[in-house]
Write a structure and sequence with these properties.
This protein is an alpha/beta fold. It is built from twelve helices and 13 strands. A five-stranded mixed β-sheet has the order 1-7-6-4-5, with helices on both faces. The model has no long low-confidence stretch (mean pLDDT about 95). The structure holds coenzyme A. The site of coenzyme A has 21 residues, from helix 2, helix 6, helix 8 and strand 12.
Length: about 350
């Protein structure tokens, strides 16, 4: 069996920045509270009402395709992790397939909130390992501004919009997704949810009036579970593979709160220079945070680098993944530069 390796990365960020100062004008909050409690300085917002998650996901996929010099017809399957699909159906994956011209692909959306990318990655990896797929596109994409109540200071400061994509292919050696540990537990589903709009509470004047189509969170309670879940998931995967801190090149945690990230790293015994962080610039972009970290730090990654990914999200959903990076990221960055020059 070949491991499924990440062989290319792409991303998309809307241009508009929503800073903490901007939020001070919307709700009763301040920059210091947001920075010290969450680590966030600004986030990106997709303002155009005619563009949403499929647009961002397609752009992230297109970025990957151009960097990798990939023919979209080679893509076998597309998995889009999202909790903010353009609509319930058709799936965002179908819209992306059409937009990028992946005429031989099948695909589906996967809903696991902030663990979405992790769950999609392990699903895609098993599709490669089965031998039935050669190229699987895994995308994490969320337009969180579409379900955020910008009158609720306890949630509107936290989230941002973004998409990022990875390509999975069989590795000829021993790099790729080595193992994963994943769990769900619906006992606390009500602590973090969007209660309206589904078959239980279809849209009515009442659901709209009660704000049921916005994300709702009991932040303090979720924080406790998230700290515990992230740390345990990291510990589980490290124990299984007897990974010491010197074996790990980077921890790539879901970006919900800088304090959760710091606590997870501390419990693992990792210094901050071994932790990928982008929450300060993008906020919590839900399914996009982890692949967005790859896109940000791709140039530093080399074949064989051991990464531990860890996430926690609504559901609850949580888990970890141990992977060995498969390519020299600096070469991929150079390939992108020559593409950009050639395109001028
Ligand atoms: N600006 C200023 N004050 C705010 C505020 C804001 N944006 N949001 C909340 N507050 C206030 C609260 O009203 C509360 O005031 P009170 O003590 O007078 O009642 C106080 O700040 C503390 O609120 P609390 O909710 O206890 O803050 P916190 O330290 O727990 O931080 C979160 C809030 C949301 C940042 C934090 O709980 C968190 O990150 N939760 C987990 C998020 C997460 O992991 N989600 C799952 C994965 S997506």
């Amino acid at each position: 069996m070949s491991y499924a390796a990440i062989t290319a990365v792409g991303h998309f960020l809307p241009e508009e920045r929503l800073t903490n100062a901007d939020l001070e004008r919307l709700v009763d909050t301040d920059d210091e509270w947001i920075r010290t409690r969450t680590g966030i300085r600004e986030r990106r917002i997709l303002r155009d009402p005619d563009k949403a998650t499929a647009y961002m996901a397609s752009n992230a996929a297109q970025d990957l395709i151009e960097k990798r010099g990939l023919d979209p017809e080679e893509i076998d399957a597309i998995i889009v992790a999202t909790i903010t699909p353009d609509m319930f159906f058709p799936a965002t994956a179908c819209l992306v397939q059409h937009e990028i011209g992946a005429s031989k692909a099948w695909g589906f959306d996967l809903s696991a909130a902030c663990s979405g990318f992790l769950f999609a990655l392990s699903t895609g990896a098993q599709m490669i390992e089965s031998g039935r797929h050669e190229k699987v596109l895994v995308i994490g994409a969320d337009k969180m501004s579409g379900i955020t109540n910008f009158e609720d200071r306890s949630t509107c400061v936290l989230f941002g919009d973004a998409a990022a994509a990875v390509l999975l292919e069989p590795d000829p050696g021993d790099c790729g997704v080595i193992d994963f540990y994943q769990r769900v537990d619906g006992k606390h589903a009500g602590l973090l949810s969007m209660p309206g709009g589904g078959s239980l509470r279809p849209p009515t004047y009442e659901t709209v009036a009660k704000g049921m189509h916005f994300l709702q969170q009991q932040g303090r309670a979720v924080f406790k579970y998230a700290v515990d879940g992230m740390a345990r998931a990291a510990e589980e995967i490290m124990d299984r593979h007897q990974l010491g801190i010197d074996d790990i090149r980077y921890l790539v945690p879901h970006q919900a709160n800088q304090r959760i990230i710091d606590t997870t790293a501390r419990k693992m015994g990792l210094d901050s220079d071994k932790v990928m962080v982008n929450i300060d610039r993008y906020g919590n972009t839900t399914a996009a945070t982890i692949p967005l970290c790859f896109a940000d730090r791709e140039e530093e990654l080399r074949r064989g680098d051991a990464l531990v990914l860890v996430a926690f999200g609504g559901g609850f959903t949580w888990g970890s993944c141990y992977l060995r990076w498969a390519y020299d990221g600096s070469k991929a960055a150079r390939a992108r530069e020559s593409y950009a020059t050639a395109a001028l």
